[in-house]
Amino acid sequence: MEQKIFYIKTFGCQMNERDSEIMAQTLSGHGYIESMNYQEADLVILNTCSIRAKAEQKVLSLLGYLRKAKKNRPSMKICVAGCVAQQEGSRLIERMPHVDLVIGTQQIYHLEKHLQRVALEGSLVVTDLRDDYEIPQFLPEINQLGRAFETHLPCPSPRPWRKFVTIMQGCNNYCTYCVVPYTRGREISRIVNDIIEEVKAFVKEGVQEITLLGQNVNSYGKTNAVAETGASYTFTDLLKEVSQVEGVARLRFTTSNPKDLTDELMRSFRDVKNLCPQFHLPVQSGSDRILKRMNRKYTTSEYLEKIEKLHDYCPELALTTDIIVGFPGEEDRDFEETMNLLEKVRFHGSFSFKYSDRSGTVASTFAEKVDEEVKVARLSRFQSRQDEISLERNREYIGTVKEVMIEERGLDGLRGRTDTNHIVHLNNCTAGHAAGTIIAVKIIHAGQHSLQGEVYNLH
Ligand code: 5AD
Ligand code: SF4
Question: Which of 51, 171, 217, 295 has most ligand 2 atoms within 8 Å of CB, for mutation?
């Protein structure tokens, strides 16, 4: 079989990272090898994100750049996958005729088949999005894990000891700002057995930490039957079942919508021993008026009640959130309420964004757009205060001993991650600490974005 070289660049979320791994695995199974250098590639794949305009612009400018690369190497095939591909479809090829394949979010599993058609028939757009779609089984192979670890740069895929497992795709919530329901389609949950088998296969290859992935994991099992018997089955059931797979040392999940967060799931932070005490719970705004316009279906007091309960069940829980500033109609008083919420919850960290109009969404039709300067000022005020709080929060760890999973050796020593998902730099480590091992570390210093520690109890 003729060996071809491919290069993948991944933009956006963890689901895209997992999808890129799957595409890489498909190609490796068909005689391709991966390169970190797009210039030598026979196939360049851009796995794209369209959540905000900026993400989409990055893709378009990279595609413009690739036009030149293709001139120098006319045999190079260019494939656009992911959310921009799904949304733009044939418009992409009209604007960028050097693109050979536009492949939608449900089609990546069939990448090789589509590439064969491109070779025979020329450029192709495959963006069908079905409601009754089944995510196929994709079991990892040991050499794939190793390969992805060594060469998947400059956008590294998760390390072999830490893997994402997609449990569902799509979203039925239609938050008014969000493009996901249009790019990923209706919510579809994977079959329990497929997920468990994938987790087991990963563990067999040495993976210790599993993150269950979906746009809206709390609704797992709600829209289609996932258990063999057809009996009702919730996300909490799945979480428990995965936690019992032997060898899963750490379990995480993302993302959750507060409206679907059940008491049963919150209790899992107390009852499921390998579930890490870390939770990403996007609130988006601290103003009830804005939450309503966002179609989030919860109020700030409901959100705060849930936070209180979560802390009762798991006092050491580290909370993070997503915030949008400058949503259409957001006034100063609404933004002040977001600042107040930040003071009340004191999130360990947050991802905050300026609202960005996405075509096809309801909010893009709202009239009261907020001026760019106002958005910039609000974002900067929110982020400065969050940085201070993150530092204060991180300082609370100084003097404590945490379990840290070693991730990689940098120039200045080892780097690892706590169960609360904090990065820890270690200064007195030895070569014996291989990636993936969990060691006790005493935290001695805290910065805004990471901790510093010493290996505790060296034998
Ligand atoms: N503008 C700005 N931020 C957005 N997000 C989603 N859509 C938009 C948008 N149109 C943010 C939300 C979401 C995160 C993944 O991206 O905060 O939780
Ligand atoms: Fe988008 Fe809302 Fe669905 Fe999250 S829950 S993917 S923000 S529509």
Answer: 171
